[in-house]
Amino acid sequence: MNTTTRVHEYCSLFTEFSMYLKEKKSYWLAPVIFVLLAMSALAFFLEGSVLAPAIYSVF
Q1: Residue 48's pLDDT is what?
Q2: How far is CA 33 from CA 8, 18, 38, 52, 53, in A?
């Protein structure tokens, strides 16, 4: 599986999720998903850094 195929799959997943939110009027899910994505990105990028113990003490 090459990179272009993966990007296309992720874009289609995002499009399908946004269509679900519009159809079901579940707008309250968008902030929840955004916060979860932001926290996971923070954990991913700070995994090996010196700030990791400070982040872990918050949770």
Answers
A1: 64
A2: 20, 11, 9, 22, 25
- Give the Cα-Cα-Cα angle 44, 47, 49 (nearest 5 degrees): 130
Dihedral sign (CA 18, 23, 25, 29): negative
Q: Read off the DSSP letter of residue 49.
A: S
Helical pair 29-45 and 3-24, crossing angle rounded to 10 deg: 150
DSSP for residue 26: -
Find the largest Cα–Cα distance for the chain.
Answer: 44
Tell me the two tokens of residue 39. 């926290």
Rounded Cα–Cα distance for residues 20 and 22 (Å): 5
pTM: predicted TM-score of the whole model, two decimal places: 0.47
